[in-house]
């Protein structure tokens, strides 16, 4: 099915959450399609009815949408329908297509019925093991006579359908690894359809297997490039043999390297968050994750640029620069990128993304007045660049909402600072000025008083600033006073229970 266009697909099995590895596969497919003006197809590989779930399909779709990886053909995002001329795009809906193709392969004698029982196969396996031979199926049922087949079928003997692997080496080109070759005798005749109780009509009612349906679908959907994880390399020769048995054009392949954790073990839950939904829940921005995923096995032409918006990635991406060596998942690098993109993001967007994390501190978004909204934008704009992800913001902003009088004293270093004579003088001098002032405190009032206190207490630098910061925020480091003072004062005027500068100094 040659459409004259580049066509790629992401083909998840909906058996769990979308993880970093699969999301990277989806991204590379998407980038390649967008770069080349091709089509990106989403196909749901749900032939394994027991393990596949609609819930997982929905979640995968949601995650892909969140990452911005839009597809041209496949299941619709919301209504459960489909779009595109090559459907159905869910394998469970394609059973008749597979059955028709199995019939054709059997008729063409490219495939055969294998009546071997699990016990027969186990005995073969043991024998091969004992003789130190590769455990490859002997092909015992390849040459069964028509009469014997008919007899077996009429007895209702269960059978699998196997492909006849050719006697010559199987070769294919991998855009990441170069030319690959698999010698004859190293690959069993692959099962295309699993064994089940056979029917006299000659069509096996068994379930078609991944290697088979994936090849049929890739061919019928006109897929030109198969980009997927390198855990599928050993499947590829079988799929190539299926393509060849049908006389179909074999697509290009690109197998992406494994993603490892910092200990160089395969990335898993042990390494922390690995699912896209968990990164979303932690308040990572999708553009940061997309940028980071792109760097897992791909690099810019100049060998150094690491920051890319999704659009820039589309322009820069080239499959030729995908490396075959394993990629190491480095959460620190992801954090750096997230901080970068948070700095660029509109405060209103960030505020809306992290509102729910502030439950208990802030009113619900719908109940918030404009003044509360604007004030919250400022809080977020000021503090977001200092956290790695947005769910860490409430803890970082806690000092604005309430200052725990115990806090400064519990911290030994802070307590020691507050106990000094000079700190006491500084705070007494400052509190006196605040008390003598009526109305809210502006940043310039505060700057004037700090200058006066500096003179009056004859202290400077950290001796001046640290006690004041600790009294106001519970910590001796934090945002500049000219940003902090208005935030505290505006917050205090909003009936959110936020203590004012005066209240903080009097605690
Ligand atoms: N459903 C397979 C998987 O999730 C797809 C493999 C492929 O892309 O061919 O691993």
Which tags fit this structure?
mainly alpha, 507 residues, binds glutamic acid, 13 strands
3D structure, described in words:
Helices cover 45% and strands 10% of the residues. The chain has helices spanning 20-36, 54-67, 95-107, 118-130, 146-154, 210-220, 236-245, 276-281, 286-294, 310-316, 331-344, 347-354, 370-383, 393-401, 405-410, 412-419, 421-436, 443-457, 461-473, 481-492, 501-506; strands at residues 7-10, 39-42, 74-75, 82-83, 111-114, 159-163, 170-174, 178-182, 191-196, 225-229, 252-256, 259-260, 327-328. Helix 6 (210-220) packs across helix 7 (236-245), helix 17 (421-436) packs across helix 18 (443-457) and helix 17 (421-436) crosses helix 19 (461-473). The mean pLDDT is 93. Residues 11-13, 45, 214, 228, 232 line the site of glutamic acid.
How does the SSE layout of this entry go?
Blueprint (H helix, E strand, L loop, with lengths): L6 E4 L9 H17 L2 E4 L11 H14 L6 E2 L6 E2 L11 H13 L3 E4 L3 H13 L15 H9 L4 E5 L6 E5 L3 E5 L8 E6 L13 H11 L4 E5 L6 H10 L6 E5 L2 E2 L15 H6 L4 H9 L15 H7 L10 E2 L2 H14 L2 H8 L15 H14 L9 H9 L3 H6 L1 H8 L1 H16 L6 H15 L3 H13 L7 H12 L8 H6 L1
Parallel strand pairs: 1-2, 10-11, 12-13
Antiparallel strand pairs: 3-4, 5-6, 6-9, 7-8
Helix pairs in contact: 1-10, 6-7, 9-11, 12-13, 13-20, 17-18, 17-19, 18-20
The structure holds glutamic acid.
